[in-house]
C-alpha cells in the first residue's frame, strides 16, 4: 500500500469532529475498499470520562458492530483515525503498539491558532500510516483527494 | 464452537470471518487456530508468547483476554470473538523545544551531581538537559514554595525566578522550611536565594521582592516555560491563571487548607484553566485563607513536592500528569482522589469568546470581594480602642463571638457569648434588641457577614462590628493585661 484516497467531504467530517472534541482527542473508524475511504464513523472516546486528554480507546465490541454495519452497506472496515491535539500527526509509541498489520491509521494533528473569533481557530494536518506486516516498521502513506 | 474473526484480523486467517473450532476453552482454541493458520501465530503473539496489545478475546459479551480465563470450559453455544483493541494517543511531549535542549551541555561535576537522574531511562541525558534548559517562575516563597523551590533547584532547573513581597515572620517557621530563625524579618526571596545558592551555585536564580498586580504580572512571567502557583489567596490565584492564559504558559497549581491539599495543571496546550474549574472565588471572609485557617506542618511539603514532581514531568515530557485534573489529598484520613476538570467553553478567559483579553481590564479586588462593599445600610463598627473604652466604662452591651470553636481555643474573648455564624438566624432571640450588640471575629470580616445575616433574618436591635477583629484588639488590651492565651 502506497496511498490513501479520500474525498473532501470525508476530510471535512474528520476535521469537524477533531475541532468539536478539542482540546480532547476524538477517534473513529474509516470504511471503504482497499485504499479508498468512502465513509468515516466517529466513535467518540470511551476513555474520555476516566483518563487524560492524551489517550483514547475504542471498545472492541463497538468496532465489531461497525464491521457488521459496513458489511451491510457493502464497504469494509479498512482502518481507524484519531486526533493529536496540539501535537504532530505522527504515531506515538502507544499508537504503534495498537496498529494492526494492513489497517490504515489516520492521525489528525490539530492546533489552535488564535483566540479571536474572527480568525480561523484551528489548523489541521492529516497524515496516514500503515504497518504492512507484523515484522515491518510503520510506513507513511500519501494522502490523495479523489 | 464458532469463532468469529474481526474484519481487521481476518487476513491472517485466510480471510475467514467464522471458523468452527472443536475445542472447549480459549487456550485450546488459540492453539488450534495458530496451528491451522500459521500466519496468525506471529500476528496474535509477540516473541515472548504474549498476546499483542491490539488483540482482544470475547466469549459472548464478556472480555476474556486475560489469561486467567483461558482454561475455563465454555458452554457449548458460546460465541468466541477475536476482536481488535484500538487505542493510542498523542505522545506526551516536553514543553522544552529540542533546539533549547541541544544548546545545553554538562561538565563532569554535573554528570556526577545528576547521576541518579541520568540512570533513569525516562530522564537520562536528554531529560536532564531539558531540566537545565527550563525557565520556571515560582510565585510565593512560603509553605508550598519551600519544597517547590528547593526540589526544583536540587533537580537542576537552570533558571528559577521566585516572586514574593513578604518578609519572614515567626509563624512562617512552622511550615516554611526554606526559612530558618536566622532569616526572621528578611525578605523571603532573599532567604530563598541563599538556600538555592547553597544547593547549586550554577542555577540562575532571579529574586523579585514585589507584589504581583495586574500591571506587572505579564512582564514578570512572559517568556518563561512554567508558572508554579504557591500563593495563599484567591486574588493572586486568578491573576496568575489569567496571565498564564494570556501568555500561553502552563500553570502548576497547588493549595492547602488545614489537612487538605490540591494540585492541578491548568492551561497546558489550551486545556482547561483554573477559572474553568473555579469560575468564582467563595464570598470574601467565608472561607478563611491558609493563614487564617491554619495547616498542619508537613502538608505543604506533601503538596509542594507533588507540584515540583509535576513541573519536572512537564519539562522532561514523561508520565501521566495532572493536566485537566485536580488531585485532592486528605492528609488527616490519608485519602486522595483525582477529579476531572472539564474545559468550559464559556470561560471568560480561555473560552471561545473570551471577554478578558488583558489582565489590566479586570478588577480582581472586586471579583474577590476585597473592596469595601457599599452596603445599602452600612455596617457600623467600633475600633478596638473604642470598644476597649466601652468595656472599661462598664457600658451595657452584648458581645457575640462568631468564630468557630477551634479558633476560640487559641484566644478567648472575655464575657462574650458564643454563636457560630451558621446558627445566628435561628438563635437571634438570645440577643437583647434593647441594648447594643457587638460582633467579634478574627479579622472583622465574618462579623460583617454576621450582622447582614441577622438583618436579613429580621433582627432590629443595634448591631456593631469590631473593626479588624480580635487580631486588632489583642495589641491594645492584651499588652497591658498580659496574655489571654
Give a written overview of the molecule.
The complex is a heterodimer of chains A (146) and B (485). Chain A is of the alpha/beta class. Chain A has one domain (3-145): Cytidine Deaminase, domain 2 (3-Layer(aba) Sandwich), CATH 3.40.140.10. Chain A is 23% helix and 41% strand. Chain A is built from 3 helices and 8 strands. In chain A, strands 1-3-2-5-6-7-8 form a 7-stranded mixed beta barrel. The relative contact order of chain A is 0.23. Chain B is an alpha/beta fold and 485 residues long. In chain B, 32% of the residues lie in helices and 18% in strands. At the A-B interface, strand 4, helix 2, strand 5 and helix 3 of A face strand 5 and strand 6 of B.
Count the beta strands of chain A: 8
* Name of the top-level CATH class of chain A: Alpha Beta
What is the average of the pLDDT values of chain A? Answer: 85
Strand order, largest beta sheet of chain B: 9-8-7-10-11-12-13-14
Shape of chain A: globular
Distance between the termini of chain A: 17 Å
Number of helices of chain B: 18
Write down the domain tally of chain B. 3
CATH topology label of chain A: Cytidine Deaminase, domain 2
Amino acid at each position: 500500500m502506497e496511498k490513501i484516497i479520500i474525498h473532501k467531504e470525508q476530510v471535512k467530517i474528520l476535521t469537524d469532529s477533531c475541532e468539536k472534541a478539542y482540546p480532547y482527542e476524538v477517534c473513529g473508524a474509516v470504511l471503504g475498499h482497499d485504499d479508498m475511504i468512502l465513509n468515516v464513523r466517529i466513535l467518540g472516546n470511551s476513555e474520555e470520562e476516566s483518563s487524560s486528554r492524551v489517550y483514547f480507546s475504542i471498545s472492541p465490541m463497538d468496532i465489531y458492530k461497525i464491521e457488521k454495519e459496513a458489511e451491510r452497506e457493502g464497504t469494509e472496515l479498512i482502518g481507524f483515525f484519531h486526533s493529536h491535539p496540539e501535537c504532530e500527526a505522527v504515531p506515538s509509541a502507544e499508537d504503534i503498539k495498537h496498529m494492526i498489520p494492513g489497517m490504515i491509521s489516520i492521525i489528525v494533528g490539530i492546533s489552535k491558532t488564535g483566540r479571536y473569533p474572527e480568525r480561523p481557530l484551528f489548523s489541521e494536518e492529516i497524515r496516514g500510516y500503515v504497518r504492512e506486516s507484523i515484522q515491518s516498521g510503520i510506513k507513511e502513506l500519501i494522502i490523495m483527494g479523489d | 464452537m464458532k469463532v468469529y474473526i474481526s474484519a481487521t484480523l481476518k487476513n491472517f486467517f485466510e480471510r475467514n470471518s467464522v471458523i468452527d473450532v472443536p475445542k472447549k476453552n480459549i487456550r485450546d482454541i488459540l492453539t488450534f487456530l495458530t496451528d491451522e493458520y500459521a500466519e496468525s501465530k506471529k500476528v496474535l503473539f509477540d516473541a515472548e508468547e504474549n498476546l499483542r496489545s491490539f488483540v482482544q478475546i470475547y466469549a459472548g459479551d464478556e472480555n476474556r483476554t486475560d489469561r486467567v480465563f483461558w482454561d475455563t470450559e465454555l458452554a457449548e453455544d458460546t460465541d468466541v470473538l477475536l476482536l481488535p483493541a484500538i487505542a493510542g494517543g498523542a505522545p506526551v511531549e516536553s514543553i522544552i523545544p529540542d533546539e533549547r535542549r541541544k544548546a545545553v551541555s554538562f561538565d563532569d561535576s554535573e554528570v556526577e551531581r545528576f547521576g541518579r537522574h541520568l540512570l533513569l531511562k525516562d530522564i537520562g541525558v536528554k531529560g536532564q538537559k531539558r531540566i537545565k534548559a527550563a525557565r520556571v517562575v515560582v510565585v510565593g516563597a512560603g509553605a508550598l514554595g519551600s519544597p517547590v523551590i528547593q526540589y526544583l533547584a536540587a533537580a537542576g532547573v537552570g533558571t528559577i525566578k521566585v516572586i514574593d513581597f513578604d518578609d519572614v515572620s515567626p509563624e512562617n517557621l512552622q511550615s516554611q522550611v526554606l526559612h530558618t530563625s536566622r532569616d526572621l524579618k528578611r525578605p523571603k526571596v532573599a532567604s530563598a536565594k541563599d538556600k538555592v545558592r547553597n544547593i547549586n551555585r550554577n542555577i540562575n536564580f532571579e529574586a523579585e521582592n514585589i507584589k504581583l498586580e495586574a500591571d506587572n504580572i505579564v512582564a514578570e512571567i512572559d517568556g518563561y516555560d512554567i508558572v508554579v502557583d504557591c500563593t495563599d489567596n484567591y486574588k493572586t490565584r486568578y491573576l496568575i491563571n489569567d496571565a498564564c492564559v494570556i501568555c500561553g504558559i502552563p500553570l502548576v497549581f497547588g493549595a492547602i487548607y488545614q489537612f487538605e491539599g490540591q494540585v492541578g495543571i491548568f492551561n497546558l496546550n489550551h486545556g482547561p484553566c483554573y477559572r474553568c474549574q473555579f469560575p468564582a472565588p467563595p464570598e470574601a471572609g467565608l472561607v478563611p485563607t491558609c493563614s487564617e485557617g491554619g495547616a498542619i506542618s508537613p502538608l505543604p511539603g506533601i503538596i509542594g513536592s507533588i507540584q515540583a514532581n509535576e513541573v519536572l514531568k512537564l519539562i522532561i515530557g514523561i508520565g501521566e500528569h495532572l493536566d485537566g485534573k485536580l488531585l485532592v489529598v486528605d492528609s488527616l484520613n490519608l485519602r486522595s482522589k483525582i477529579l476531572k476538570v472539564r474545559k468550559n467553553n464559556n470561560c471568560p478567559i480561555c473560552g471561545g469568546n473570551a471577554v478578558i483579553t488583558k489582565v489590566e481590564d479586570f478588577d480582581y479586588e472586586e471579583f474577590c470581594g476585597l473592596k469595601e462593599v457599599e452596603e445599602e445600610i452600612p455596617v457600623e463598627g467600633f475600633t478596638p480602642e473604642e470598644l476597649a473604652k466601652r468595656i472599661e466604662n462598664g457600658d451595657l452591651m452584648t458581645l457575640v463571638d462568631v468564630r468557630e470553636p477551634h479558633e476560640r481555643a487559641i484566644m478567648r474573648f472575655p464575657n462574650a457569648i458564643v454563636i457560630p455564624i451558621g446558627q445566628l438566624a435561628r438563635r437571634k432571640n438570645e440577643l437583647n434588641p434593647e441594648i447594643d450588640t457587638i460582633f467579634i471575629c478574627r479579622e472583622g470580616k465574618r462579623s460583617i457577614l454576621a450582622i447582614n445575616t441577622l438583618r436579613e433574618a429580621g433582627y432590629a436591635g443595634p448591631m456593631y462590628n469590631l473593626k479588624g477583629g480580635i487580631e486588632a484588639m489583642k495589641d491594645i488590651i492584651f499588652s497591658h493585661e498580659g496574655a489571654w492565651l
